[in-house]
Amino acid sequence: MASSIADADVGRAAAGSHGPAAWTRALPVLAAWARRLGGVAATLAGLLALTFFIGRVMPVDPVLSIVGPDADRSTYEQVRATLGLDQPLPVQFGRYLASLAEGDLGRSVLSGNPVREDIARVFPATVELATLAIVLGTALGVPMGVWAAARRGRAVDHAVRLISLIGHSTPVFWFAMMGLLLFYAVLGWAGGSGRVALEFDGLVAPRTGLLLVDAAWAGEWDVWRSALRHILLPAAILALHAMACIARMTRSFMLAQLGQEYILAARVKGLGERAVLWRHAFRNCRVQLLTIVALTYGGLLEGAVLVETVFGWPGFGQYLTSSLMLGDMNAVMGSVLLVGLLFIGLNLLSDLLYQVFDPRTRSGRD
């Protein structure tokens, strides 16, 4: 009898440990994520409203882009009414939000296709370009920043700072034009405009939209080599800009860590310089670098328009620029919404990775 009572007490204690106490520990985390999601919703709503109303006061008339400057007044008014531009701005915005809630981004004036289909067609090209660029930029920028911090004031440090300054301050379109002139026109090492040579265009069915992946998947290695030859130069130019930012921030974070007492203690214990740098100092920098790399990647996805223009790269940047020039506000709104979602998603991803790599951030406090 006594043993059964004791067993019952143990069972209640175990249930209690997984009951109210568990909820008490989970509530701060849930509240923190609720605040984050509320901030995401408010940010997206503000972004959509601001873009919509700015787009409606732009001097570019989307109706003229459709009917042309020689159309008569009745045709102009008919198209304007069809687009809903004869309604008050709040009504237009409400209709746009209602369509957006159904997953409808509208129809592009530029192509005549649904904006969702256009973005799905052009965005993978930019993803492929930006992903290769951020991989190259991170692979080069992080070691450069670590070595510069470890040799502060020496020749290596000065060289890294100079390269970072040049990469960050020189306009990316200038690098693009000089690179195209040197490596394509003079040396013939790089491919020309577009994603692949003309004789290979359309030979690979788009499965993922990433041409290197699709060509390898289909076993079309001639197409794969041509695609690699075309992407390396624009990706390297974008990587130079990313590398400059990542190297500079890595150096700054490493210098802050190398001045801490635990680094002095590690050196006093006789640890080698490589272990001190990578196992101790860099380990405490990687959490901060996650945010830098994530935001840099978002900037490459959104800001590759100049490189895409110079290289004739059929990506998201060119689509957004052409839409702005023609006043195609459905395409602009859809593109801005995608960019906003990208940056918000990358920020949330970096928050999750923070919690993975830094246990101190798991308490749920902001």
Automatic annotation (TrEMBL):
What are the UniProt keywords, alphabetically?
A: Cell membrane, Membrane, Transmembrane, Transmembrane helix, Transport
Q: Where mainly found?
A: membrane
The UniProt record lists the keyword Transmembrane: yes
**Annotated TM spans:** 37-55, 129-150, 171-190, 227-247, 289-311, 331-354
Mind telling me which Pfam families this protein's record contains? BPD_transp_1 (PF00528), BPD_transp_1_N (PF19300)
Q: List the InterPro entries.
A: BPD_transp_1_N (IPR045621), MetI-like (IPR000515), MetI-like_sf (IPR035906)
Would you say which domain of life the source belongs to?
Answer: Bacteria
Question: Transport: present as a keyword of the record?
Answer: yes
List locations, semicolon-separated. Answer: Cell membrane
Report the residue ranges that make up the ABC transmembrane type-1 domain in this protein: 123-354
| Membrane topology, as annotated | Multi-pass membrane protein
What family does this chain come from, according to its entry? Belongs to the binding-protein-dependent transport system permease family.
Annotated protein name in UniProt: ABC transporter permease
